[in-house]
Amino acid sequence: MLDENLPTFYLRPSNDNVKHHASVLLSQYGSEAAPAYSLRHPDPALPGSRNRYAVALYDSYHPDILYGEVLLIPEWTQPSLSQEEIRRNGGIPPAPQPILPSSFVIQLYNPDQQIVVQQGVSKWSATPQWVFEMPQQSFRQPSVSSLDRTQSDPTASETTPKLRFKWKKDGKLSKDYVCSLSGKNTNPDGSKRKNREPDITLSIFKHLKEITMYEPNLTRVEMEDPKGLEVVMLLSAIVIREVYNGSMRETFNVSDVPRRLSGETGPRKNSYERTRRHRTDILPSQAAPPLSNQAPLLQAHTPNARPPPTDPRSQWEIDAETALLKKQVEREERERRHAEHAETKRVKKMVEEEERRARLKQLEVEKETEHLRRQFEKEQRQAQKNQAPSLPARPMPNLHPTANFAGLNYPPARVQRPHSASPYPPHGPYIPRPVNNASSSVFFGGPSSNLRPPEGRTVGSKPSFFGRLGHSGQSGPRLSKKQSAVF
User: Fold this and answer.
1) How far apart are alpha carbons 353 and 358 in whole angstroms?
2) Residues 6+ apart with CB under 8 A from 362
3) pLDDT of 278
4) pTM higher than 0.90 for the full model?
């Protein structure tokens, strides 16, 4: 503080705990600092506040009263055509960078006027300076004439005399800025600089934190609107501190290049949700509701529903995001095809493995079957070898059913008889049967017996029992006494 009796403005954070708001406190004659103005910036989280700078000065006790504001939209660098840089950036041109503007406009209200602040360099000290002009007459003269009412305001008239002001550094190594009124030229033709009056110091911006007004010198300024001059000095000092002495990325709210747009790769997430969220952030399709105490010009560029015009940086982000989404879709398509191919290959391999296992199992079954068959045959051969040899079957003698030789008692054979009503055959019990009707005894052989007469021997008619004892006159072979097969 230079002097406690001089009016001094302090820049402090706002009491409402809003980061992008600040308070301007005033102290004079040793009094405690009290709120005088409210300094507001647009919410950096809103899409409409990106890639631009805006500040407005309001009254502390009446938030609806707006004194002035500044809107600054920077210019941008042209995209690089170097293939090396594009290749290093992942196939996307590098992001355009903001260019520090050489001038800005302060919009004042009631009366409305625009003050252009131009940046330059001092010829003597080569230090930067900012020059602006303000009209001496700002209000209309009271008049009942209709013709006077149709005329333009004095602030817009080119014939209105203007005063020249400038902010410059107090020294090359100093952080203080001094605002002064340029001295008038006493020479009518303006050819000699030695007749120019010295500059009048009006305020000092000390350490970019407090602004001290030289009240005695302010009375020497021939202006109708000293309040407007105070607002212009405050706003210009704030812009110089934040724009020309701060970080351009933070000042213009330039968003950092997302990692996915810088060509760097990382773990992937859900592409649909990530893309939707990022596009919602980039494209200002839905803006937040505006604050009730914002000015028309500030509302039009910050929280209003109408999005700002597309700047090169936003256009680059949209183009880069489109190219990235296209590459991402292609990559996902390749990964999908690769996954399908891998799945098909895995299923094919699994089927082949199952078939191979089935063949091996079938071979094992066949091998086990062959082993069991050989083992069974071996056991069967072994059993046959260990079994005792059996005697051959004895031939059975063809004896009469009632014959009894050497005390051998054979059971009488059952003689099958044809089914007939009479118990005797039609020829009688002692009448010989026809030759072609052979005996059907099962024991001695019958028609189905395997016994055959020897070759060269004919079977004649079977003679009667009585005919065998005597000669009945029939010629034929006689029965010979059969030998016992046992004895």
Assistant:
1) 9
2) none
3) 41
4) no
